[in-house]
Structure formats: C-alpha cells, structure tokens
Amino acid sequence: xxxxxxxxxxxxxxxxxxxxxxxxxxxxxxxxxxxxxxxxxxxxxxxxxxxxxxxxxxxxxxxxxxxxxxxxxxxxxxxxxxxxxxxxxxxxxxxxxxxxxxxxxxxxxxxxxxxxxxxxxxxxxxxxxxxxxxxxxxxxxxxxxxxxxxxxxxxxxxxxxxxxxxxxxxxxxxxxxxxxxxxxxxxxxxxxxxxxxxxxxxxxxxxxxxxxxxxxxxxxxx
Length: 222
Ligand code: CA
Fold this sequence. Notes:
Largest sheet: 5 strands, parallel
Oligomer: single chain
Helix content: 40-55%
Order of helices and strands: EHEHEHEHEHEEEHEHHEE
Number of strands: 11
CATH topology of the largest domain: Rossmann fold
Bound molecules: calcium ion
CATH class of the largest domain: Alpha Beta
C-alpha cells in the first residue's frame, strides 16, 4: 500500500512541485493551503507523514504541530523560509521530526521524507532497554554496561530523556558545559561519534542516536 503524505503549503506552485515529486517517488499526496483545514484532515485521514509550512493563512504551522501532537505521533517535517528560524523552532520543543529551509530542491524534500519514514520504521521494529544510573554515571543497554565518559553519559541522558526531540549542537553544549567555556560545534560531533561506537559494540543494529541533517541530534522515537 502507498504511503500517504499531507502537504500543508499555501504557495500553490510549491505545493504542486512537492506533490509531483512525491507522487513520482511512489507516495500518494494531499495538498492543503489553509491552516485551519490541517488538523481535522489529519484526524480523519491519518497520513503517514506531514510536510508542514510554518507561515500559513488562518493557522500557522506551530499551532498545527502542537495540536497534532496531542493526538498523534505522525512524523512532521517543518518547512520554514528562514534558516535562522530553525534554532528557535527546535527550542520550542514542538515535537517535529525534521526541519527544512526554503529554498530547497524537491529532490531534497523527497530524500528527507524517505529518511524520516525509514527512521519511524526502524524504531517500530527495535525494542531496546536502556538503563541510566545518574548517581554513578553508569549506562547499561540490553543488560550490558556501555563504559561511557562523563560527557558521553550526559549526552545520552539528555537525548534519551526526550525521545524524538531534536537537540541542536548549541543546546547540547549549553546543557553539558554549564561553565560556558568555548567549545566548538565539532566537539559535540566527536563525543556523539564515540558514544555511537560504544552503543554499536553492544547492539550494532540499534540506531539510538540519530543525526538530523544540518540541525543536530535526537534519540530515536519512542
Ligand atoms: Ca507559507
């Protein structure tokens, strides 16, 4: 059965472009240009993924995302016209799965849609048991100790504390380096890389910590 994608976009030209490419990639699509129509449509039709523009007539993407999250975990990709908006959106903890910034190529949109749907599938198939003991910084996965450094433990603990929520590198740094010493973005990347390696030793199949392209990281959806 074909997966159903809802495109909420008031620029007709863009909506048509998304629709054409997504249909070509094998998805069925529905386009809505009015923010007021989105939530009732989602309730009724349960799409597999939503491409949600931020600025919409009558109800904006933020409000729509919040309302949908009350009753559904459907993957949501937020679309914004301003790159600098993305950090603020992440900070609002809306529960979106990915963010893309206009202008983008329709091919990129299709790639993101596929990636987000694939992640959803993986998390539905895996069932891991992660236990974090904050007192002694001890993490065990499937009954095996992970042998983490303090920073790796903190990273895992922040991410796992809110499965599915995207954290930017800045947000992770702020939470870990409370003394605000200057560390560069890549510091977080290198800690994450080591952390993933240690997780992979215990469970090679499990992709617990996921990169969100050009944005940051998240722990896999519950
Ligand atoms: Ca718009």
